[in-house]
Specification:
CATH class of the largest domain: Mainly Alpha
Protein name: ArsR/SmtB family transcription factor
Number of strands: 3
Largest sheet: 3 strands, antiparallel
InterPro entries: ArsR-like_HTH (IPR011991), HTH_ArsR_DNA-bd_dom (IPR001845), Metal_resp_trans_reg (IPR051011), WH-like_DNA-bd_sf (IPR036388), WH_DNA-bd_sf (IPR036390)
Number of domains: 2
Order of helices and strands: HHHEHHEEH
Strand order of the largest sheet: 1-3-2
Keywords: DNA-binding, Transcription, Transcription regulation
Radius of gyration: 20 Å
Pfam families: HTH_5
Length: 120
């Protein structure tokens, strides 16, 4: 049981090999925290709809996002602030208009797989 942390090594296992594979699959705790944060962003239906709209329609302006999602401009702006802070979307100025695009490749891959699952 080479991967079991010392503080858990005294516990009796059923299958030591399976325990080590499970620990290896869990990986680094920092990575777990990063993915947990990413899933939290996707866990609210409005944000998920917004991210899907940005991913498939971006670069896209706040007003257009509000129309596409059925969410008010104010709520879209608030959600975008959170998504900008997390590094998930980035704003780009186009004259007086600010357009948003998805900037996180891992989130894009998740959104792509969500779309593939819905179609299949």
């Amino acid at each position: 049981m080479h991967l079991v942390p010392e503080e858990r090594a005294h516990r009796r296992t059923i299958d030591e090999h399976t325990v080590c594979e499970a620990i290896e699959g869990i990986g680094d705790t920092a990575r777990i925290a990063e993915w947990s944060s990413r899933f939290a962003l996707l866990g609210e239906p409005g944000r998920l709809a917004l991210l899907l709209a940005v991913h498939h329609g971006g670069p896209i302006a706040v007003t257009d996002l509000a129309i596409a999602t059925g969410i008010s401009d104010t709520a879209v702006s608030q959600m975008l602030r959170l998504l900008r802070a997390s590094g998930t979307v980035t704003p780009h100025k186009d004259g007086r208009i600010v357009r948003y695009r998805l900037s996180d490749a891992r989130t894009a891959a998740l959104l792509d797989s969500l779309g593939a699952a819905a179609q299949g």
